[in-house]
Amino acid sequence: MFEQLFKLREHETTARTELLAGVTTFLTMSYIIFVNPAILGNTGMDKGALFVATCIAAAIGCLIMAFVANWPIGLAPSMGLNAYFAFTVVLSLHFTWQQALGCVFISGVVFVVITITGIREWLIDGIAHSLRAGIVAGIGMFLGIIALITSGVVVANKATVIGMGDLTHINTLYAILGFFIITALDAMRVRGAILLGILAITLLAVVTGQVQYAGIISMPPSIEPGFFKLDIMGALSQGFFHVIIVFVLVEIFDATGTMIGIATRAGLVTPENPGRLGRALLADSTAILASSVLGTSSTTAYIESASGVQAGGRTGMTAAVVAILFLLALFFSPIAGIVPAYATAPALLYVACLMLRELVNVKWDDITESVPAAIAAISMPLTYSIANGLAFGFISYVAIKTLSGRFRDIHPAAWLVAILFVIKFAFFPD
């Protein structure tokens, strides 16, 4: 059966190898079932429903990837877009979370259209590698400052805007310890280092009485508080223009780059043969629509899938195994219910550190490339907005290239995005 579904022999793999690859991928990305409810819960959404929505959205995304594209890539709600959803769209722009879900749905429709028409690949090809790297690093820094605030390391300060928190507070100490545990475990190449770090701090909090033990296994909470609660008309009336741009652009950078990178490493894509890239992009786009209906932020491909490829995963069976494990995780909701914010903050900070590695891909010897990338990266955490970082990055890229006489280097896609952001600032001010 597996051979017929996934063509294992053609990809020079076995069911056992694919099973182990799926388990490996799940362990490295399953931290999202704790982190996503913690982030989106800041909007007032029900955390129990978010836990269920996260697991089901991840499972649906993985199954679509498995049977449509037959690629070993796991999908789940995006780190970065969930923070943008919560802290920018809802808490800063004052959308309701239902309207924000409506924006996710609209962006999903847009994403499907631009994928089918080929516009998605045109956009990704037209954006400079340095700017792309700066944007990814900026998203990482945005996640980092959220993690530092959540853990109590960084606090508001009237004189300096932000300042050092109380590093002797028990919650802050636990968060710092969690970060060290995650980093050390990953340095030792322990599978599921982030997940183990979260669970270790949660267990320590239970033992010391910081949180109340509530069991391990139970029936999943109800998904009803967030299921089908998207408000599309409300999103339209609220002024969704710039929000959609950001959702789509971040998804393009995140998912497309991730999928191409992992598929290339697995030998599924070459410069001469794109393989099933078109199907994979469509699977990713379709999964976003499911996320909005279930009641969570956009689903995307996870870079952690590279661990499964490293373990030998080559087909959609790997993704199918990940989907099954996410569904089984539904029955461990009591653990998710007691995980404190200071246990998930270290995971967020560690992911931020990993994203900063993209800065090595910036062409630092070319000012017209490096300065826009740096502006995009710096402005995201300092304005507390991924949208502003994207806008400043694209506008400065076009402006600097043009004024330095190198306007011919600017791809039409970069012009288009920069113009859209100028329109945003002119006609849709926050």
Brief overview, please?
The chain has 430 residues and is mainly alpha-helical.
Could you characterize what this model shows?
- This protein has 430 residues and is mainly α.
- The chain has helices at 2-6, 15-29, 32-40, 47-69, 81-90, 97-116, 119-126, 129-151, 170-187, 193-207, 232-238, 241-265, 277-294, 305-310, 316-328, 333-338, 341-355, 367-382, 386-403, 412-427, and strands spanning 75-77, 154-157, 161-164, 299-301.
- α8 packs parallel to α18 (367-382) and α12 (241-265) crosses α13.
Unreliable sequence segments: none
**Please, what is the average pLDDT?**
89
Please compute the radius of gyration using only Cα atoms.
21 Å
Helix content: 55-70%
Q: Proportion of β residues? A: under 5%
Q: How many strands?
A: 4
| H and E string | HHHHEHHHHEEHHHHHEHHHHHHH
Our count of helices gives: 20
Give me the side-by-side strand order of the main sheet.
1-4
Distance, first to last CA: 54 Å
What form results from the Cα inertia axes? Answer: globular
Question: What structural category do the secondary elements indicate?
Answer: mainly alpha
Largest sheet: 2 strands, antiparallel
Write the layout of secondary structure elements.
Blueprint: H1 2-6, H2 15-29, H3 32-40, H4 47-69, E1 75-77, H5 81-90, H6 97-116, H7 119-126, H8 129-151, E2 154-157, E3 161-164, H9 170-187, H10 193-207, H11 232-238, H12 241-265, H13 277-294, E4 299-301, H14 305-310, H15 316-328, H16 333-338, H17 341-355, H18 367-382, H19 386-403, H20 412-427
Antiparallel strand pairs: 1-4, 2-3
Helix pairs in contact: 2-15, 3-4, 4-13, 4-15, 6-11, 6-12, 6-13, 7-12, 8-17, 8-18, 8-19, 9-10, 9-17, 10-17, 12-13, 18-19, 19-20
